[in-house]
Amino acid sequence: MSSLAVAVPRAAPSTQRHAARALIRDRWALVAVTFLTVVILAAVLAPLLVPDTVNNPDFRARLKPPLTADHLLGTDQLGRDVFDRMLLGARVSLTVGFVAVFLSAVIGVPIGMLAGYFGGWLDLVLMRLADVQLSFPFILLALTINAIIGLGLQNIIITLVIVGWVEYARIARGEILVTREREFVQAATLVGCSHARILARHLFPNIVTPLIVIGTLQVARFIIAEASISFLGFGVQPPTPAWGSMVSEGLDYIFAAWWLITFPGLALALVALAVNATGDWLRDTLDPRLKR
Length: 292
What we know:
Order of helices and strands: HHHHHHHHHHHH
Radius of gyration: 23 Å
CATH architecture: Orthogonal Bundle
Structural class: mainly alpha
Oligomer: single chain
Distance between the termini: 34 Å
Number of helices: 12
Helix content: over 70%
Number of domains: 1
Shape: elongated
Strand content: under 5%
C-alpha cells in the first residue's frame, strides 16, 4: 500500500506560492480579486452598515440625485437610499451565487463520478437525464421551476440547483472517464481497494481543479440568473432589495432618475466580470496543461 500511496499524484507544495505570484503578475486578476473581496466584505457587514430603516419610505427625500447630503448614490422613488439597498442586494446576489453553486456541485459531482466510473446502464440513464435537461434553455427552465415551487430567496436557490447540477455531472464524468484508466487507479483496484475508496481517495482529488474553475465561472452565471429572475418579478419580493428587482423598479424612472438602474446594473456587470476574471486566473494557475 505504501507504493500505491506514492503513485497517487499529489499537489506540489509550492502551488499556493505559484498562485500568489501569478496573481501579482496578472494585474487584471489582482484587481478582480481585490474588488470581489471588497464586495464580499461589504455584503457580510451590510447589516452593521445599513440602518434598520433602509426599507422605510421617506417621500420628502424621493428621487434625490447622487452625491447629495447623506445619499451617496441618491434615493429611489420612495426616498430610500440606493447605496444602502445595493449593499443588501449584494447579500442576495452573492448568497444565491455561492450557495447555489456549492449545492449544485454537491449533487452533480457524485452523479457524474458514479456515471463515469461504473458506466453501463447507470451512465446511460444519468446522462440521458442530463441531456433532456440541457435541451431546455437555461433561463426558461429556471423561470418555469421557480413559478411552480414559488417565490423567495430559498426557492431561487433550489431552482438554480435543479438547473445547475448537470454541468458538474458532465464535467465530473468526463474527468473520471480519463482518470480511471491511469496506473494508480488500476493499482488500487489490484490491491483490493473498494469502489468507494477509489472514488473518494484516488479519483476525486484528481478532478477537483476543473471543478473549482467551473464553479467559479458558474457563480457569475447564477448571479446574472438571479438578477434576471428578480427583474421579471419571480425572485426575492419587495421590500427586500435585489439588484435585478432594483433595475426593474427603476425602469419607470429611467429618464427622470437614471441612477436607479445605472448603479445596480453596473454592480451586476462588474461583479460578473470580476468573477469571470478570477475564474480565468484560477484556470491558468491550477491547470498544469497551461503552464509553461
